[in-house]
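Project outcomes to date are best conveyed with an example. Our students and postdoctoral researchers have been running inverse folding experiments weekly, and each run begins with a structure described purely in tokens. The record below, which covers 217 residues, was selected by the lab manager from last quarter's runs and is presented without edits.
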């Protein structure tokens, strides 16, 4: 079984996640930590739980989700994996970060690329990689069938979806991919989004105004 811990960082209130197995093998997903106290919160939890970070994963590469990439890579000497379509988004973060009030941001290059349909090992557990573009061109989602955990980034929120008015966004594609990729997961799957509280696939199928059964979009 995988355990999951959420942190909420930076002015965008971005959700950073650590997932880890019974032996402490861990992956850090979308580190949005920028301020020293945010980095300390993440660091202290890893020490407290005796975790061994092995991977750094980005669901997508918008600024608020990559602010802590360099710090995580340097602190734990672990590889960064992204979808190849996110390369221009990651590169643009270097230009955009100062405009959003993050002048100390330093970008890093990915060490590898994730392919949809493949699995990523976190210790002895396997994460499925789902391709859900629309909010960002190379957006991926991580699903762990045994724990029924879905780390959705900025694709699906409780009662909402990711914005699609940023470069590389595609509203119709996002709706299509949520329905085909995420809504095919079991109804009791817990969705951990990039912002805001957790939800479930069942709840969003019924109540989400964009993609639910009574959607008006």
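After processing, the design step wrote out the following sequence:
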């Amino acid at each position: 079984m995988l355990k999951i811990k959420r942190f909420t960082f930076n002015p965008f209130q971005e959700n950073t996640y650590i997932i880890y197995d019974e032996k402490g093998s861990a992956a850090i997903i979308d580190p949005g930590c920028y301020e020293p106290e945010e980095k300390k919160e993440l660091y202290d939890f890893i020490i407290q739980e005796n975790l061994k970070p092995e991977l750094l994963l980005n669901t997508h590469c918008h600024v608020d989700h990559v602010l802590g990439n360099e710090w995580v890579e340097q602190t734990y000497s672990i590889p960064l994996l992204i979808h190849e379509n996110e390369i221009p988004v990651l590169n643009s973060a270097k230009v955009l970060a100062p405009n959003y009030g993050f002048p100390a941001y330093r970008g890093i290059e990915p060490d590898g690329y994730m392919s949809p349909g493949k699995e990523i090992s976190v210790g002895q557990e396997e994460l499925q990689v789902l391709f859900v573009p629309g909010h960002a061109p190379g957006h991926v989602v991580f699903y762990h069938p045994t724990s029924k955990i879905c780390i959705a980034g900025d694709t699906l929120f409780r009662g909402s979806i990711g914005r699609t008015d940023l470069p590389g966004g595609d509203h119709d594609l996002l709706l299509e991919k949520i329905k085909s990729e995420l809504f095919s997961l079991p109804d009791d799957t817990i969705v951990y989004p990039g912002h805001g509280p957790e939800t479930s696939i069942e709840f969003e199928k019924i109540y989400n105004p964009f993609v639910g059964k009574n959607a008006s979009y």
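The mean pLDDT is 97. Residues 36-48 form the longest helix (13 residues). The training component of this project remains on track.
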